[in-house]
Please model this.
Amino acid sequence: MKLYSWNVNGIRAVLNKELLQKFIDEHDPDILCLQETKAERGQVPHDWPQYEEHFFSAVKKGYSGTAMLSKTKPIRYLDGFPDDIVKKFGVTGDSYGDPNAEGRVIAAEFDSVWVVTVYTPNSKGDLSRLELRYKHWDPAFLAYMQQLERSKPVVFCGDLNVAHQEIDLANPKPNVGKHGFTDEERERFDDFLAAGYVDTFRAANPDKTEAEQLATRIIAEQAEIASYRIRRGAINDAEFAKIADAARAMQFAPLHIDQTGGISIAQLAAR
Model:
């Protein structure tokens, strides 16, 4: 199984530039998870007959959103958090709106695994959404993954909007305390690791720094956020025992999980 995850930062833009179709033609994913689609399915003038397509769009037009393309039809899709998780963790919204209406989580159940894609809310430059992240969203997402895992293993991937360690940033010192690299966000990522999930890239590359890997072109185009390794794939410990290799996840570039008996992670350069 080849699973790819990609924050496309607007699916219509990558379609217009023929980047998405080129990517599909070249790599032939079995499952393709997309974040920040910024579109409803009806606004995407393209069809992929080889895939079962599922879009979960934000109520607000042109904002957020996730999608999943799968060659194998899942048993079912679950959009957003279930009501019990929303109620328990108070994920009811803030001054920006209701995160449950922003198309941020898709869980697809297959015969032997759950595949989940997520576009975690950004804490914002003024940290006005940090409270939502720390007190509500991040704990709710972890609890949801654990809830799903009671029935079968979970693989989740997407844009978690956090750089966990200094090694994940090209220039960490000036970014300490800024959105994506606050103590609170990093602490919540610790919670995932403590719960038995594995940051697949970091586990396979414990000493590799993001600064070593970022292309100058990407830094120039994406400025500060390009130096954050915030796109991640995570699996539970039992599945991690199968991992053969891993490489990084970079801003707006696809993350690849290839399962052929074992699991390997390979990073593809942005096209």
